[in-house]
Batch of 4 targets.
Target 1
Amino acid sequence: MTEQSTNWEPKIIAFLCNWCSYAGADLAGVSRFQYPSNIRIVRVPCSGRVSENMILSALKSGADGILVSGCHPGDCHYISGNYFARRRFALLSNLLDFIGVEPGRVNFSWVSASEGEQFAEVVQGVTEKVKALGSASRLVKKIDALETELQVA
Amino acid sequence: MPTINEIVSEEIRAQARKLLEEGTVAAVIGYAAGTLPMTVRPLVVRSPEDCSKLIWNTFCVLNLANYLPATLKSVEPPRGPRDPKPEGPLPKVAICATGCWSRNIVVQTQEHQVDRDRVVVMGVGSRGMVSRRKVEAIFSGKEILKVEEGDHELIVQGADFSETINRWSVVRDNCQTCTHPDPVLVDVRIGEPVSERKPPNPFIQVEKIEQKTVDARWAWFTEEFSTCIRCYACRNACPLCYCPTCFVDDAKPQWVGKSLDAVDTGLFHVLRAYHCAGRCTDCGTCETVCPMGINMRMLTKKLNKDVLNLYGIEAGMQPDAPLPLTTYAMDDPQKFMANEVAPVPSMAPATLGHRGPVPGSVKEGK
Ligand code: SF4
Ligand code: SF4
Ligand code: SF4
C-alpha cells in the first residue's frame, strides 16, 4: 500500500461544498482548466458539515492528502456554516500539527463557484505539497501489517 | 493549630449539615476518606447525619462536577421519559467546587446539562492538589502506609521510614500552571478566597512539545500513547464527556476501531481531546485517573492554548458568552488556509465580548 515507486501518485480526498467549491470544480472542468487527477471528490452540503471524524477517517483509511474546501467567508449558502467550520478547522489543523502530522497533509481552502481557475490552482498546489511529502504513514491504519501479524501469530 | 484543610473540612461539614437540615438542598456532593493512603472517594450525602463523613484534603483530585448532572437527576421525583416536568422548583444539590470544577459547572450550564438555579456551589479556593503518582515516584520501591498533611509539607510514613517532603513539589502539573484557583461561582464560601496565580508561563509544558521538530513531535505522540489500554477512564472521569453514545462506540460508521492498534488509540485521543476544545478547564482529572500514567492532558492543553490565542476565550470564565465553537467572528484568523485571503473586515478586536489573551502568557498563534 505504501510502496513508493517513481510513478507513485498520491490519492487526495477532497471534501467540497455543494454550493461553491464543487461548482468551482465543475467550472474548472467545463472551462478546460487542467488540474491533477489525484483528487477524489466527496460532495458535502457545506464545509460546516465536514467533521473531524470524516477527515481523520479518510487519513486512517489511507488517503495521502486531504483537501476541504468551502465558500469564501461571507458567501456561505447557509449564511454561517463556513465561519463555524473555520474555527474548528483552525484548531484541528493546529492539533494535527502538534501531534506531528506533516503540515500539508490536511489542507483547507475557500473556492467560490466562479473560481474554476483558482480551483485548479489549489488542487495543483495541494497535489505538489502531498507529492513532496510522499505517501502518508502517520495516522494511517495498516491493515496489511495487522493481517500478516495475525497470520504469523 | 488545625491545618487549612482541617478548617475547610470542618466548614464543609457544617455548611452541608446546615443546607440539608434547612432543606435548601436534597444532596451534597463532596469527598469521603479513601481506603488507601492518598486517596479520597466522591460521596453524595443525602442526610445531615452523614455529613460527618465529608472531608477535604490535598488529594481531592477527581472533578466533582462529573457527578453533578446525575445527582441532580437523582433528586428529582421519578417520572417517565415523556412525562411533563413537575410543577414548581425541583430540589437543589450542593457541590464542593474549586476553581476548575466551578468553571466546568459554568460550561455544563452553558451546555444545558445543569440548571444553575438548582446548584448551590460551595466554593473552595484551591491550593493545588497533590499527585499520588509523584509522591509514589519519590518513594519508589517502598510501601507508603500513611501520609499526614501539614499546610506546606507532607509527612510520608511507611513501616520503617517517616519523611517530610515539600507539598508544592508534588502538586499536579496542571495545578502548578493554574491561573484561576478560586471558584468563579460561589454560593457558599468555604475557607478563605485564594488570589489569581500568575505562573510565568501557563503553557510551558505544551510549548516544550511545540518547539520540537515535526518528526520529534510524532515520536512523542506515538511514544506517549503507546501504553494506552483503552480503558476510557480519562473519558469517564471528565465532566465534559456526557454523550449518551460516545464516538468510540459508533458502529456505522466506525470512526475508530476497538483494537489496541496504535492508530486507533491515537485517533481516540485526538478526537476526545478535540471534543473538549474550548470546554476543557485543565482540571487534570483525565491525567490523574489514567492507570498507565499517560499525559493526554497535553492535547487538551494545546487546544486551550489555541482557543485562548485565537479567540481570547478561557473555558468557564465568561458564563454569558457562547462557547467558542458555537460562535464565530467575521475576522477569525485563517492563516492555516491554503489560499488565505485578507480577512473580510479589518482586524478589529473580536466581537461578542471576548477577553484578550492573558498578558504575557502567549505568543501569537500560528
Ligand atoms: S470523547 Fe467526545 S464523543 Fe466521547 S463522550 Fe467525550 S465528548 Fe462525547
Ligand atoms: S479533558 Fe481532562 S483536564 Fe479537561 S476538563 Fe476533562 S478531565 Fe478536566
Ligand atoms: S485512562 Fe489512560 S489507559 Fe485508559 S484510555 Fe485513557 S489514556 Fe488510555
Note: Residues 342-366 of chain B have pLDDT under 50 and may be disordered.
Target 2
Amino acid sequence: MNHKHPLFFLQIIIPIVLIFIMLIFLPRFSSMQKWEGQKIYNRHCASCHGKEGNGLKNLFPAIRESSITAPQDLVCLIRNGRNSGSVVAMPPNQTINSKEMKLLLIYLYKEIFRISVPNLLSEEVEKGDAFCNP
Amino acid sequence: MPFLGEPRLGSSPSGHLDTLYPVIPPFSFTDQQHHLINQDSLKGKIYVADFFFTSCPTICPVMKSQMLRVYEAFISEPDLMILSHTIDPYHDTPDVLSRYASDLGVMASRWKFLTGSRDSIFNIAEHYLAFANTDESAPGGFIHSGAFVLIDKQKHIRGYYIGTQEKEVDRLIADIKILLYEP
C-alpha cells in the first residue's frame, strides 16, 4: 500500500503558488524600476537632453545617439561632467547616489539608447565610482 | 487683452485723469552682435522678454526649448522680437551669447541675447515683474524667474507666462497672435 501523508498535495501546490506570485510581480518590479529610473533621469538630465534624449539643436547633444555607452564611462561622465569646447558644459553631478546611478543607467540603456543592459552592471557602476570620483 | 502691473492715477496723453499701467522704462543693452539695443530698436514691435544664463543647469535649457517654439511659430513675423537677458554678464559676454544663439540656430535679427551691467539687468527684471539675483546656494549661483513676459508696442506688460510649461507657452503663442493686431 502506498501511504501518503494527508498534506502531501501541499508539496506540489506551494511551489506552484510561489512561481505564480513571482510571475505576477516580476513585470511589476521591472516597471517600477523603469519608473524610478525615469524619475532620476527627469530630475537630473532631461532639462538639457530632453525627456526622450533628443537634445536641443547644437546646444545639447541628442544622447539617443550617444557615443558614450560603456557603464564606467557613463558614470565618469555623469560624476565629472564634461566640456569639450562647446559654449555650454555638462555639469558634474555628485548628488546621485550609487543605487540611483544603477537605476539611471538601466533607464538610459532601455529607454534612451535602446540597447541591451550590460552584464554585471552593479559592479561596473561601483568601479566607475571608485575610479572617477575626483 | 489685460494690462498687468500695479496701476496708478495720472494724466493721459490727452491730458485727462486716467488709470495708467506701468511701462518698461528706457534701457540700453548689448546684443550677441555687439550692437546696442534700446527701445528705439523695438519701435512698432511687440516682444517677449526673459531672463537666463548660459551655464544654468536647471530650468534655462527648458525655457530655451520652449522659447524656440515661439521663435519658430513667428519666424516670418518681423513685428515680434524676443529679448533674452543674461543675468550672468561676467561670464556671458556678447561672444559667448553669440555662440549660444548660433548653436540654438536662431537669427540675431529676431532673437536678441542681451548683456549689460549686472545692476541694470537686475533692475530691469523687476520692471518685467520677473526677479533675478545672485544666490550662492542655487545651482549655477543665481536664482531667477522662469517667466516669459509679453510687451506691447507702448511698452505695457500684457501677459505673463511660465516659460517651462508647454501649455503656458501655447497660451503665449495665442496671445501674440492677438496682440500683433493691436495698434
Note: Chain B touches chain A at residues 54-55, 57-62, 64-65, 68, 96, 99-100, 102-105, 139 (CB under 8 Å).
Target 3
Amino acid sequence: MVQSNGGCASASPAAASSCEQSGKSAADLGLNLDDPSLSSDVVSKVTSHPCYSPEGHKYARIHLPVAPACNIQCNYCNRKFDCSNESRPGVVSKLLSPAKGVQRFVKVKERIPETNVVGIAGPGDPLANPAATLATLKAAAKQDSDVHLCVSTNGLALLELVPSLVKVGVSHLTITINCIDAAIGAKIYPWIYFNHKRLRGREASQVLIDRQLAGLKAAVAAGMLVKVNTVLIPGINDHHIEALAQELKLHGALLHNIMPLISDPAHGTYFGLTGQRQPTEDEVAEARAAAGSNMAQMSHCQQCRADAVGHLGQDIDLDADESVKPVQQEVAESYLVAVATKSDVLIDQHFGHAQSFALYQIYEDSIAPMGRRDVSQYCVDNECDETESRMASMLQALEGVSSVLCARIGMTPWQALEQAGVMPSTDYALFDIQQALSALQQQWLEQGKFSQQSRCKEAV
Amino acid sequence: MAYSITSACIGCNACKLVCPQKAIVSSATGYAIAEHRCNECVGHHADPQCASICPIETAIVDQDHRALNPPGSLTGLPNERQVIAMTKLAAKVSGGKGGAHATNG
Ligand code: SF4
Ligand code: SF4
C-alpha cells in the first residue's frame, strides 16, 4: 500500500498517540503562516485541512478505499497481510467501488457536516488505479462543490496524471519520497512496475526517484499543495534526510512529514521479518530538525488508515454503525428501479449498450416514472469506452437504484452490480415495462419488502 | 497458451488494469484468466503484463503450474509464508489485542 498519511510502515496506535502534543512542541519547525511569500489561497488551503495544520482539526476528512492496485513494492509493506492487525495504517480491509465510495461520503457528510476533505490513499496507489480514483473524486466534488480533494501517491505515475488531477479539482497532494539516492532506494524498493516492465534494484529506484521529483515539480507548477511523506528508516535513510529536504524545497514542496518506520514482524513486511529496527523518538526529532532548516515540518500526523473517517484522532467505525451500513434485506417504503430500454415500451436493451436508464419508483400501491438518467454524464474525460471506467460510470448512474431490469447482461457487470448492492435481472427481458414493474411490485409485496409507513420514518 | 491465477491471489486488481487482452476477470469468488483471451502478451509486450505487476509470489502460473514469480522473487523473503504463519501464531498465543473489530455482515 502507498504510504498515505502514513502507509504500511506506519503507526501502531502507540506511535500515533504521541502526535497530540508534538504539534506544539515542534511548532517552530512547522509552517509559518505569516510568511509573506505564502499566498492567501495557500494559507486557507492549509488551515482548512485537518492533515495539514493543527488548526484544521475542527474539520474532518474521509478516506475512500477505492484503489487496490499498486505499481511498486516497498519493504515496509506486505500486500497480503491484512488480518493480524487491521488498524495498521495504510491498510484497509474493505474495498469500495467508486459509486459506493461516494455514497459513503454522502452518508458521513450527513452525520459529520464538517467533513470537508475527501482523500484517496489506497489501499494500493491511487494513481495506479486512475479510473477509479478520478471517478470517485469527480463524483465527490459533484456532491459537494466546497470539498477539498486529496490524493496520496508514491509518485511513480504522477507526472502524466497531474492534468487530470487538476481537472477534477485535486488541491492537496501527498507524495511519499523516502530518498533521492538510488543506492538507498534499492534498499527500500525491491521492484517497480514501469513502462510494461518489472524493474529491480538501482534501476528501479532511479526511475522512481526521477519520476517522483518530476511529478512533484509538475504538481506544484499546477498549483497543488504538495506535502511529502518520508518514512524514517534507521541505518538506511536517516543520514540522508537533510539532503532530501533540500531537494524537496528546490522542487517546491510545501510541507514535509517525517514518519517513523513501523516494523513489527507481525505485519509480515520485509523490514519486519529481517529485523530492521524502528527509529526512536529522539531519532525522529533529530531527523525533523535536520530537515527543518529547509522544509516546514509536519508533526501532528496521525498516520491515518486509507479508510479513515472523521476528525483526526477520533475515527468512527462505520461497521459498528447501523445507519451507515448498506441496506441489506431491509424494508423500505419504496424502491428505485432502472430499466434498460430503447423503445420506452419494452425491456429490450442489453445492459452494456444502455446509454441511459428509465427510472421508476415502486411503492406498495403505485409506480411512478422518475425520468431517465444518462450514463455519459458520469464519464471521466473521454475514457468512457474503457470497460473499467464505463462500469464505474454505470454504477454512478445507478446510484440509489435497487434493481436493474434489462434484456441481457454480461457476467462481469452482473457481478459488479451485485457487489454494489444493485440487483440485476433479465427475468423480464422483452416484457412490457409496465407489466414487468407490476409483476415486480407484486413479487416484493409477497416478500414483505415494503415497510408500513409508520415503521421506518425515523430512519431518515 | 494461457496463464492462470492461483488461490494465492489477494485480489488487488492490478493485473486486470494492465492486461492488454482484457483476459482477466474477477468475481465474488476471485480472479481468473479467461483462457481463450490470454495470449501471454505475445505481440503486445516483451513480458507478460499480469506477472510483471502482480505483487504476490505464486499467484500467476503457466500451463505447467510453474509460478511466474516464484517464492522469494518479489519480497526477498524465501520462506515468507512460513514466517508469516509463525508470526501469526505467535500473535495469537500472546493474545490478539485487535479483536475489537466487528466483522462485516
Ligand atoms: S499474460 Fe498477458 S494476456 Fe495473458 S492474462 Fe496476463 S496480461 Fe493478460
Ligand atoms: S495482480 Fe496478482 S494478486 Fe493482484 S489480482 Fe492479479 S493475480 Fe491477484
Note: Residues 77-105 of chain B form one domain.
Target 4
Amino acid sequence: MHPAPSVILFTTLSGLGFGYLVFLATGAVALSGWAAFFAWGLGYGLAVAGLMASTFHLGNPQRALKAFTQWRSSWLSREAWTSCAALFALAPMALSDWLDLGLPRPIGWAGAVLALATVGCTAMIYTQLKTVPRWNHWTTPASFFAFALAGGAVLAGQGWLASGLCLSLGLALVLQFRLGDHQFAARGETMGSATGLGGIGPVRVFEQPHTGPNYLMREMIHVVGRRHARKLRLIALLCAALVPAVLCALLPPMVAAVTAGALHLTGALAARWLFFAEAEHVVGLYYGMR
Amino acid sequence: MTCLPGKTAKSLGLVIDLDTCVGCQACVTACKGWNDRGAELLPDENPYGPEPSGVFLNRVHSYEVTPPDGPAWIVNFPRSCLHCEDAPCVTVCPTGASLKRAEDGIVLVNEDACIGCGLCAWACPYGAREMDEARGVMKKCTLCVDRIYDESLPPEDRQPACVRTCPTGARHFGDLADPDSAVSRLVAEREGYALMPGMGTKPVNRYLPPRRKGPGAAPVLAPLEGKATGLAGWLDRMLGKL
Ligand code: SF4
Ligand code: SF4
C-alpha cells in the first residue's frame, strides 16, 4: 500500500497523543499549574495534529463532518466519534490539573478509556480489511495499542513501567513483522483464484489492461520501499522500543522523556511507514504484482 | 446508510463470457464514453503527455493459461464492480456515500456525500473503485443505472453501455436473484463462477469459464519439411555430399 505521509502522521501522532493522554488522565504523572498546562497541551497537540493530518488525505475535507454519520457499520466513523469524545471528556481533567480545581480522578479514567478506544478504532480501520492480509490480523491492534502505551509512558517519564511497555512494543513489532510475512500466502488468494482460471492450469499475465499505471496501482501496489525493509525493521525496533527501554530505565524521568521520546517517535514513524509499504493488497494479483 | 440491506428484491449484475471475449476493449470505451459524457466525469490526467493516467470503471486484462494437456490459451478478462451482496466497500464508508440499493442490489457512490477518503477502494478485492483525483470523489460502475430504467430510451438500449456495445455478445445483464432469468440459466448451464469467493464478498456478477479445448483440437504443428529447388537445391545437395 502507498505509504502516504498524511496517514503515517495521522496514525503515529494521534496514537502517541492519545497514549500520553491516558497517562495524564489517570494521574500517573502528578502535575499542576503550568507544568500540567504544557503536558496536557502536548498530549492534545499530538492527538489533534494527527487528526488534522488525516484530513489532508481526503479529497473533500470540507465534508468531513459527514464521517460522523455511519458509526453503525464503519470503523472510520467510530474513530471520528471516539476521538472527539475522548478530547471532550478529558477537558475537565486537564483544566482541573492546570488550575488545581481538585476534580476527582475517576473523571479522567473515563476519558482514558475513550482515548484507548480511539486507538482501537484506528487500528480496526486497517485490521478489518480482508483485502490486505498483513493487516487483517490480531497483530495490527496489538501493535497499535503497544505503540500508544509505550509512547505515552515514555513521554510521561514512567521509568521502569515505560521500559517494560517499550519491551512489549518490541515483542509486538517482532511478531507483527514475523507473522506478517506469511499472511498473504496463508490467505490463499492467487492469480488463479483472482481470475478463477487457476483450475485450468498456471495463469500468467499476457498483457496489462492499460499501457500506463493507474490509481489502483499507485495506491495498492507499492514496491519501491520494500527494498530497504530489513534495515527499516531494525531501525524501527531499536529506535521505537529497545533503546528507549534502556534510556527510560537509566536516565532521570525528564531527560528520558525528551531523549527516549524523540527516538521513539522516529522509530514509530519508520515502523508506520513499513506498515503501509510492506502491506500487499490482493488486487495486485490481477496485475501480477504485489 | 452504509449498513447492507440484507436480501435485495433483485440482484442485477453482469455475466461475462470468457470464452467469447476477444479483448477488443469496446466495453472499456463504451463505458468511458457513457459515464464521462465529454464532461470529464471520468477524468484523464495528462492524456497526451508521456505518462497518461485515467479513471476507468472497467478494464480488460489478458492472461495466458496453460492447461496440462496442450498449448497455452489467451483469456481476455474484463474486470469491473461485481455488485457484491456482502460489499465491504459499503460497510467501511464513514459518510454513507457508498450504498447498496435494496430494490435492485446496485452498489453506488453518492458523490455529494463522498469525502474521498479512499477506504472503500482499499476494501474492494477486485480493484473496482478508482478515485477521481480532480474532484476528490470515488468512482465505480453504476451498472448504468441511468440507462437501464430510462424509458425514453428504446428498449434495446436499456442495458449497461458495455453490454450494449460488446460485438461478440460476451456480456450479459440481468437479475441473478431470479433463477429463471436468462442470465441465471446461462450461469447454471455454463457453470459460471464468482471471483475470489474466499474474500467473503458474495459477488453477484458471474464469469463463464473458457470452454475446454480437446487435446487434439490444436495440435502443435511439426516444423515444415522444406525441400529446396533450383540453385538452392543444387547447393543443398552439393553441401550435403561434402
Ligand atoms: S466489486 Fe468491489 S466495489 Fe463492487 S461491490 Fe464488490 S467490493 Fe464493492
Ligand atoms: S471514498 Fe467516499 S465512498 Fe469511499 S469510503 Fe470514503 S467517503 Fe465513502
Note: Residues 230-241 of chain B form the longest helix (12 residues).
